[in-house]
Amino acid sequence: MKKCEHVTKHLFITGGVVSSLGKGITAASIALLLKRRGYRVQIQKLDPYVNVDPGTMSPYEHGEVFVTDDGAETDLDLGHYERFADVSCRRESNYTTGRIYQTVIERERRGDYLGKTVQVIPHITDEIKNAIRVLDGPEVDIAITEIGGTVGDIESLPFLEAIRQYRQEIGSRNGLFIHLTLVPYIRAAQEMKTKPSQQSVGILREIGIIPDILICRCERPLEEEHLRKLSLFCNVSRELVIQEIDVARTIYEVPIELARQELDTYLLELLDLHVRDLQLDDWVAFVDRVVAPKARHCEIAVVGKYTGLRDAYKSIYEALDHGAIANDLELTVRPVEATEIEAKGADAVLAGVDGILVPGGFGVRGIEGKILAATHARERTIPFLGICLGMQCAVIEFARNVCGIAGANSQEFDPEGPAHVIHLMEEQKAVRNLGGTMRLGAWPCDLRENTRAAAAYAGRHIAERHRHRYEVNTDYRSRFEEAGMIFSGTSPDGALVEMVELRNHPWFVACQFHPEFRSRPLKAHPLFRDFVAASGGLLASAPDGDGGQVRAPRSAPRRTGTGTRT
Ligand code: GLN
Q1: pLDDT tens sequence across 134-172
Q2: What angle do CA 298, 527, 292 make, to 5 degrees?
Q3: Is the CB of 389 under 6 A from ligand 1?
């Protein structure tokens, strides 16, 4: 008998009518459901903008830059993929128009197309198909490709043409088109409107794509009449018109909602795949926990400079939520503009907070406010978590105010300054191009025994994701240590300082890496879990030994379920 060859099946997800429909969350939810049906899933995003990657874009422009283990600077939707489906994304999980063109142009310069005119069709579309094909392989059952932007955008056209061709080549049993659209509610008319969806499906049809599944984002439930209308005019069977109603409580409810309408079952049937049991109990239990009323509350300030835009610190906010859920705490996040602390003082702006987090960032604006926030946390013994730039600010503040090093600063903010306690990494000195040249991706780090860091991770060897050019200047190391700063994490060769913490403080921990990228709903990141616990008064410090190993006080509720140490 002929052996059945493994085929990777493909799902292509497009969005219509408006942007910000939550395509990333929908794609991530589908990935989660298929994974929980026992399939091996890979997921990627193709972004039609021209930047080679989002690494040089402002968070205001694009939201957070999500960093993968293999050091790619990518779209924040990859954060949703990792958090929902617990997959590990990689460089191949995100392509842009810029990156596709870069490859084609390099090839043209090499002479690979000698004699030919290089054109959008077929050369650019072929390269997009190569980017999709990267996901194929015996270890992948289902590959999900999300197309960024909105159908009808000029820049999306080559991507839509590429997925049209791709599916034509693999056949309708091996590839499906899912279109996410908006069904708005017009308050004045008190009506839901299906016309925008019909029009957006019309645009797709003009370029040869007929969606197999329509997912309708809506504010309120659709009536049978709307569902039939959408089915009829969009050429999609009635049961494949799915509603995705705004979730009131948490985005982690979306997969449960989609499963309730059996989206995953239909997908598997259409792809000729066996419908295995869905294992979603832990996820449902997690969502129950998220929405359950909590006995204790805590408030954490996030002191940054893009606080007006939630997406700018997406993974930070998510990781804080994971930490709060792991500790059964009701969490309020107070976004604080660092410049406001400069203007009004830390006492006024940070009054009443239980914990202070200073996230990563670039550029001098707001630096002094972040430094003041670190001083405030140290002096008032408020739990503190510094991340990347946040750690650098904590080191600068310690140098200035505890070690008395006048003019201590980072070389980034005061290039001619007298005391660069943070300086450019050796390997960065020759760097000229700014795109993709930072110290990026997962690097190993060794933790010192008997520190808060080692207690959180319950281990001594970790790897975390980085994105920076500057580092702690180890010339100052002994002065810092004598004054009470503990270097609790270093690169295995001891050359780079990756984590610091303070003696004689309940919980003051900072890291050069970005722990937020590795936090998962069912597995809160240990640093976020302990930081939130300390902020909520659930961790007590017993400053014995080196770093004052942290132990939970007897009265602290036992942690169960998510985020417990393993
Ligand atoms: N600007 C700092 C550096 O490049 C910090 C970077 C960050 O916070 N991601 O080192």
Answers
A1: 999 999 999 999 999 999 999 999 999 999 999 999 999
A2: 40
A3: yes
